[in-house]
């Protein structure tokens, strides 16, 4: 059966916002007297919901700041950085135009909060491409729980067997696979063992587009 629905993750798939998240976390933790690295961010918080990110740092370092306050500070800094320096990942517009031309239903399902989603869609000017947009903020559990993907499928009125999900992180890949959809991982290191459960691995959005053209 040819797929009818394509669901995007956002960070690392549509926009390279991970550096913005890491910079915000590193700077804010420094202000609170703790030194963390990019590798710490990748290890502890990559792919997580913002409430989980803030709680992780508060728990790890017994921070005196409330997790909710840290969460808002991170969000505010990331939004500023996205609106200032955010750029679409190479090949995104070509992929979106192809999906529209081929009459795919297009969804967005991300761990990011609505504040971040709106900033990205505004900066990249792509909101009109999406039929449904879902944030894991609205779910009880974030990724790797598949709830946000299941919600997107329900809103798009698509069965898992009709869906392709594009992810870039291990956390997101696990969520996508748990939703029972066909899962493509976007990562330059397509041979990395950590992505072995993905159904397809592509090093670029151009390669994702090439793959879709074979279906």
Give me the secondary-structure topology.
Blueprint: E1 5-8, H1 18-31, H2 38-44, H3 50-61, H4 67-85, H5 92-101, E2 105-110, H6 114-124, E3 132-135, H7 147-156, E4 163-167, H8 170-178, E5 182-186, E6 200-202, H9 205-212
Parallel strand pairs: 1-2, 1-4, 2-3, 4-5, 5-6
Question: Can you walk me through this structure?
Answer:
The structure is a single chain. The protein is 47% helix and 13% strand. The mean pLDDT is 96. The longest helix has 19 residues, at 67-85. It folds into 2 domains: 5-16 and 87-212, Rossmann fold (3-Layer(aba) Sandwich), CATH 3.40.50.1000; 18-85, DNA polymerase, domain 1 (Orthogonal Bundle), CATH 1.10.150. With 215 residues, it is α/β, with parallel strands linked by helices. The termini are close together. α4 (67-85) runs parallel beside α6 (114-124) and α5 (92-101) runs parallel beside α9 (205-212). It is built from 9 helices and 6 strands, in the order βαααααβαβαβαββα. The protein has a 6-stranded parallel β-sheet, sandwiched between helices.
Question: What does this entry show, briefly?
Answer:
The chain is 47% helix and 13% strand.
